[in-house]
Amino acid sequence: MELIDIGCNLTHDSFDVDRDLVIEAAFNAGVTQMIVTGASAQGSQQALQLANNWPRKLFATAGVHPHRASAYDGDTDKLLRELAGREGVVAIGETGLDYFRDFSPREAQRSSFEQQIQIAIDTGLPFFLHQRDAHKDFVAILKHYRDQLSDVVVHCFTGTKAELHECLDLNCYIGITGWICDERRGTHMKEYMIDIPSDRLMIETDAPYLKPRNLRPKIKSHRNEPRLLPWILGTLAACRNEHPEVLAEATTRNARAFFRL
Question: Before 208, cis peptide (omega within 30)?
Answer without folding.
Answer: yes
